[in-house]
Amino acid sequence: MSALATGEPGEAALPISPGNPLPSREQPLRGARALAPDTSVAAGVALLLDCSAGGQATFTLQDSSTLTLTLSPGLTLLPLAVIGIASAGLTAALNAWVLD
Predict the structure, then answer these.
(1) pTM for the full model?
(2) Could you tell me if 83 and 41 are in contact, meaning their C-beta atoms sit under 8 angstroms apart?
(3) Where are the domains of the chain?
(4) Candidates 2.60.120, 3.40.50, 2.30.31, 2.20.25; correct CATH number of 27-99?
(5) Rounded Cα–Cα distance for residues 40 and 24 (Å)
(6) Span between the terminal Cα atoms of the chain, in Å
């Protein structure tokens, strides 16, 4: 990416370079809570997955919608407000945490 359009329509795009990096509102995460199948938790700001064997997992989001993901082995950080993981259809071997 070489430029970012921000502000009002018609304004010039801002150049992106080592001296002018992409603007970000990231903040440090303050806590981690384990996510266990079929156990509801309060939603956090992100989901951390440590998957040792690939497969599928279905997550319940804060608005009660569900999202089935096909996971590969490895560490994954997703910006999802998750409140649960279902045991039904869980074929991935994983540890999961809701991050605050």
Answers:
(1) 0.74
(2) yes
(3) 27-99
(4) 2.60.120
(5) 31
(6) 29
The length of the chain in residues reads 100
pLDDT digits 0-9 by tens, 10-50: 666 666 677 766 655 567 889 999 999 999 999 999 999 99
SS (H, E, C) 49-84: EEEEECEEEEEEECCCCEEEEEECCEEEEECCCEEE
Query: What's at 92, amino acid-wise?
Result: A
| CB atoms inside a 10 Å sphere around CB 50 | 13
Q: List the strands of the sheet with 74-78, edge to edge.
A: 32-35, 93-99, 46-53, 74-78
